Amino acid sequence: MTYRLDRRSFLARSAALGCSLAASPLLTPVSFAAAPWDARLVVIILRGGMDGLDVVQPYGDPGFAAARAAWPSGPESGAADLDGFFALHPGLAPLLPLWRAEELGFVHAVSTPYRDKRSHFDGQDMLEAGTASLAGVRDGWLNRLLQAVPGVETSTAYAIGREDMRLLSGSAPVANWLPGIDLEMSPQARRLALLVMESDPAFHAALNEAMMILDGEQAVAEAGAMSAEEEAEAGMQMGMVSAGANAAHRRIADFAAEQLRGASRIAAFSINGWDTHRAQERGLSTPLGRLSDTILTLRARMGAEVWDKTAVLAMTEFGRTVRPNGTGGTDHGTGGLMLMAGGAVRGGRVHGRWPGLDEADLYQRRDLMPTADLRVQAAWAMRGLTGLDRATLERAVFPGIEMGGDPGLLR
Prior knowledge:
This protein has one domain (18-397): Alkaline Phosphatase, subunit A (3-Layer(aba) Sandwich). The chain is an alpha/beta fold. The strands form two sheets. Strands 1, 2, 6, 7, 8, 9, 10, 11, 12 and 13 form a ten-stranded mixed beta sheet that branches. Strands 3-5-4 form a three-stranded antiparallel beta sheet. Helix content is 37%, strand content 15%. The N and C termini lie far apart (55 Å). The protein is globular, with a radius of gyration of 20 Å.
């Protein structure tokens, strides 16, 4: 039997489940793992399909200005020039000191093997599974990494949030930690919401924007409950980190940093809000602010000694179309961007092979052409951090990949 879920049936079923859309920031899990090496790895899943072309703008490519003539971009519009060809979106301006210290970098034109169907569910599942197909795959690539490491115990891995991340699902043990945030939307209702948004981009964008706004309101209320002494201490420790609506994400980063200062070696969590089908010029700044705050909080709370041996990899399920749509946004695309931060990364540069933005250079004449497999980039980062051999990475962690030459992502 075919079941059709539309807005009306979604709203009716949401009411039956007793949920409140207005109260749910759709938080996702954070997971941790300890391991017998000293370096730290943080993986942040940017759910919704981040537009890497807007985040790290290839203003030096004439095709970029031609495709996005209606949008301000490049240094003349407030983006920070990085290298004479790429410029950084103003929403990540707080991270510029890390770029100058070579603790922030990017890999452009990357992608998983996912193509053409443009489903958030399938795209994120493939990103977290780390495989070329989802058939018969039940675990995630970080869990398979842990399976290849001796001595992992239940207490060495933690999941923060209401759901397990597929990234860390598998036979290696993972425990759970739930932030003290009162969400009124049940997991079933969230799944219903996502099902509706999957087939209706306009509704998805509107609901997504509402979630971000209300997430901010929830976080402000939570921040207001802190004592004056706690606020002052936090302010002194995190000078560059902005206050207000990003407090919930900072709280997750606080907990992550605390674990990584101790026995934990791997942390994984996600940041939502990247599905910019409309009003992207306005809507992208909010999740970029959260990403900036998260990274700066990790850096401040870890301390210099731990941060110096840390690599943060922020990745998304797919990129977005090169040309904007009719509502001032972009639609689901292919080639995307990976952000790297930490003292262990080789920052101060945009890695990867740039494919160009002439129409003949685009994937299906609409998307940024991928020139590198995201799994290969992650495999090289893990090899540098953990010392795992290539055979294990190519056959067990990311089965079927060929790592090729070292892209030089780490110091």
